[in-house]
């Protein structure tokens, strides 16, 4: 009997897909079976130009030989080793390599397996840091409306994307939110950082006045909000957040899960904007998406606060079975090598003006109400179909896939973040195909 009920290997029912309209997908699956450099291969043998670096993670493109070989070598040499009370050299090597390219002041690396876990780690570190310094009342966490910090309870509590929060109960207590920085009507079709909205950082003063600085552990923001539809920080905004947090002894965490590893043309957005936080969360581009891995970078001040008490005692009761996994670490080192040897961060920086011009040439295309960009990231916002939000952008996504390009949608916003190896003709193809799709769309 039980045998009869076993699904066939190609049955799509058992896999409950993440962030997917499962019923729609399973009626008309979009299956990727191969990838190389800028392209995916579909099950029906078509080449799809990757306009999203997978999920903002394959910054060096796909199946890059150096990374593939490093993973193959490492998995055959030391497949797994615990990082609790034991070590293996490659995790230390990667940590040093990360600090080499990190903003000035970042001194330590705590490994996780994803962006969500990096966020949970950073939030816990913030609260525990203040406690270690004898400031145990500082437990509040401040996020921002429309922020995306992964899907775990801490991340959705400080996050501000309503659909990611509303089904999941009361979330963490003691959380407040800054207003988002999206100002339609004031900053439309801005190239790079918008002019208006730096004053929105001053809302932090209001939150501090409401709760008392002595109760607030940290503020977490994406320096450039990606998943909510590419919202750039207004000029001067991040500087003000830094000044206010510093003034009140509040830690500032930049969630750089998307902006890390060259997306804006520097290793990290903190360097691009010239604003250095106390902690940086990363994942995705750390291993080029090849093996799951995340990392939180902290200043020496944060780390050193924990290094007290008897030396045989564990200083931080936190960590994951796969923290610093050797195969992931090997992928990380080979990824950093690839970025450096191919000058990919510099390449992103150099291509950014071409990307910007190509994207903004979509102004005037049917349904387009705003375009935003920075580095090799861009968003095209569409006028929603009245009463049917998200439907128009989703239709564009499906049509784009049929026409050979992979884009991403969030709400009625199309977001694009191609691998940093994209060339100019491929940018033209991506944007040109998107134009055709939008012009033909209801
Ligand atoms: C800013 C930010 N933080 C956290 C995450 C969560 O990362 P993961 O999906 O690896 O848990 C993401 C994912 O897109 C992100 O963009």
Average predicted confidence as pLDDT: 97
Could you estimate the helical fraction of the residues in percent?
25-40%
Shape: globular
Overall SS class: alpha/beta
The Cα radius of gyration reads 22 Å
Which sheet architecture does the biggest sheet show?
7 strands, mixed
In CATH, what is the class of the largest domain?
Alpha Beta
Write the SSE topology.
Layout: H1 22-27, E1 32-36, E2 39-42, E3 47-50, H2 53-56, H3 65-77, H4 89-101, E4 106-112, H5 115-132, E5 140-144, H6 153-158, H7 162-165, E6 175-178, H8 203-211, E7 216-221, H9 237-247, E8 251-255, H10 269-273, E9 279-282, E10 294-299, H11 300-306, H12 326-341, H13 344-360, E11 368-374, E12 377-382, H14 391-402, E13 405-406, E14 408-410, E15 413-416, H15 424-439
Helix pairs in contact: 3-12, 4-12, 5-11, 13-15
This protein binds pyridoxal-5'-phosphate (PLP).
Residues 114-116, 119, 148-150, 222, 226-227, 255, 257-258, 283 line the site of pyridoxal-5'-phosphate.
Structural features, described:
Helix 3 runs antiparallel to helix 12 and helix 5 crosses helix 11. It contains 15 helices and 15 strands. It is 36% helix and 16% strand. It is globular and about 65 Å long. It is an alpha/beta fold and 442 residues long. The structure holds pyridoxal-5'-phosphate. Pyridoxal-5'-phosphate binds next to helix 5. Keywords: Aminotransferase, Pyridoxal phosphate, Transferase.
């Amino acid at each position: 009997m039980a045998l009869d009920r076993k699904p066939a290997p190609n049955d799509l029912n058992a896999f409950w897909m993440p962030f997917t309209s499962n019923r729609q997908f399973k009626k008309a699956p979009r299956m990727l079976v191969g990838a190389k450099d800028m392209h995916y291969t579909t099950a029906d043998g078509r080449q799809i130009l990757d306009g999203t670096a997978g999920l903002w993670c394959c910054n060096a493109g796909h199946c890059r030989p150096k990374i593939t070989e490093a993973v193959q070598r490492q998995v055959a040499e030391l497949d797994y080793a615990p990082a609790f009370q034991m070590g293996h050299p490659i995790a230390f090597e990667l940590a040093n390599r990360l600090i080499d390219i990190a903003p000035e002041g970042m001194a330590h690396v705590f490994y996780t397996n994803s962006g969500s876990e990096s966020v949970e780690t950073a939030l816990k570190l913030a609260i525990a840091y203040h406690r270690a310094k004898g400031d145990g009342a500082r437990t509040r966490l401040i996020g921002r409306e429309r922020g995306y910090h992964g899907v775990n309870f801490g991340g959705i509590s400080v996050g501000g994307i309503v659909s990611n929060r509303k089904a999941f109960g009361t979330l963490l207590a003691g959380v407040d939110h800054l207003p988002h920085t999206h100002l339609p009507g004031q900053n439309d079709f801005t190239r790079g950082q918008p002019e208006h909205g730096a004053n929105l950082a001053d809302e932090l003063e209001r939150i501090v006045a409401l709760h008392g600085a002595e109760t607030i552990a940290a503020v977490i923001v994406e320096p450039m909000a990606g998943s909510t539809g590419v919202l750039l920080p207004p000029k001067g905004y991040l500087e003000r957040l830094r000044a206010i947090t510093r003034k009140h002894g509040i830690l500032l965490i930049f969630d750089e899960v998307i902006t890390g590893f060259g997306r804006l043309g520097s290793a990290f957005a903190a360097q691009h904007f010239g604003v250095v936080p106390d902690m940086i969360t990363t994942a995705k581009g750390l291993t080029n998406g090849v093996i799951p891995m995340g990392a939180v970078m902290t200043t020496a001040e944060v780390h050193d606060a924990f290094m007290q008490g008897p030396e045989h005692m564990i200083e931080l009761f936190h960590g994951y079975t796969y923290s610093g996994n050797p195969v992931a670490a090997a992928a990380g080192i080979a990824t950093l090598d690839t970025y450096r040897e191919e000058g990919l961060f510099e390449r992103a920086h150099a291509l950014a003006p071409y990307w910007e011009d190509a994207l903004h040439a979509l102004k005037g295309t049917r349904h387009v109400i705003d375009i935003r960009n920075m580095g090799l990231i861009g968003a095209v916002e569409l006028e929603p179909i009245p009463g049917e939000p998200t439907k128009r952008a989703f239709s564009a996504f499906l049509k784009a896939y049929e026409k050979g390009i992979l884009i991403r949608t969030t709400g009625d916003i199309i977001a694009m973040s191609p691998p940093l190896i994209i060339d100019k003709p491929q940018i033209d193809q991506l944007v040109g195909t998107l134009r055709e799709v939008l012009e033909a769309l209801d």
